[in-house]
Amino acid sequence: MLLEVSDLNAGYGDVQVLKSVSVNVREGEVVAIFGSNGSGKSTFLKVLAGLLKPWGGTIRFRGRNVEDLPPEERVRMGMALAAEGRRLFLGMSVEENLMMGSWTDRGRVKENLERVYTYFPELYEKRKDLAGDLSGGQQQMLSIGRALMSNPVLLMIDELSLGLAPAVVSRLAEILLRIREEEGISMIVVEQEVSLALEISDRAYVFDLGEVVDEGRSEDLLRRDSIKKTYLSVL
Ligand SMILES: Nc1ncnc2c1ncn2[C@@H]1O[C@H](COP(=O)(O)OP(=O)(O)O)[C@@H](O)[C@H]1O
Ligand SMILES: [Mg+2]
Nearest Cα to 154, choosing from 45, 51, 20, 6? Predict the structure, then answer.
């Protein structure tokens, strides 16, 4: 198992958000997380990345407990987060943004840049442009590209499709599947569009009010009536 999260509790101040959340990711697996707004998906990724301290529970990554490690140590171990809202340096160029993602692996900057540009040729075209001048889709590519610059073994993407046109989203999905195929990188994809989430993933977890309320193989969830009714608006 690449990632084993057990009984995770977390919140803000004294307000509890995550309630005994357990999630596993196997080597090479794409795991989707979906659930309504405010159900704790981003909070979960923040705790995994080390940006928010959990109240309790364990996070085992590559056989090591990481819940007390600082974020940069987790990046070094191979976790990378493409955060919600993309968190780019809008006044810096595309290439400078990508370089910011490579601080753990300075020796391989050039190689990694080439690798990211191979997946996202439009970022190469725009490498000297300001990140703030990119379209929404290109900004999402930059956010994912920057995460790839640290050579992750687990790529976590918060809100893959938010605000993007369907054609852009299907390209992004194709590229992610290609990255997985070529490099065997595991992924956690948080995605509101449930049909998309289930199409691109091997397994999925459904969050509701900070709890895991359902989980299973994505192809099984796609066929499940309760999922269809609640999340796919199919009657
Ligand atoms: N920085 C924060 N401070 C206080 N409460 C927060 C903060 N971020 C999120 N929350 C609350 O935590 C809950 C879960 O939010 P979030 O993890 O962002 O959900 P999701 O990503 O599933 O939409 C929500 O009730 C939200 O209002
Ligand atoms: Mg969120």
Answer: 45
Within-domain flag for 30: yes
Does residue 41 line the site of ligand 1, with CB under 6 A?
yes
140 lines ligand 1 (CB under 6 A): no
CA of 126 to the centre of ligand 1 (A): 34
What is the per-residue pLDDT across 145-189, written as a single tens digit (0 to 9) for each?
999 999 999 999 999 999 999 999 999 999 999 999 999 999 999
Number of domains in the chain: 1
Cross-strand bridge partners of residue 155:
80, 187
Structure pTM?
0.95
Q: Is 195 exposed, middle or buried (0-12, 13-18, 19+ CB in 10 A)?
A: middle
In a domain, 118, yes or no: no
CATH number at residue 54: 3.40.50.300
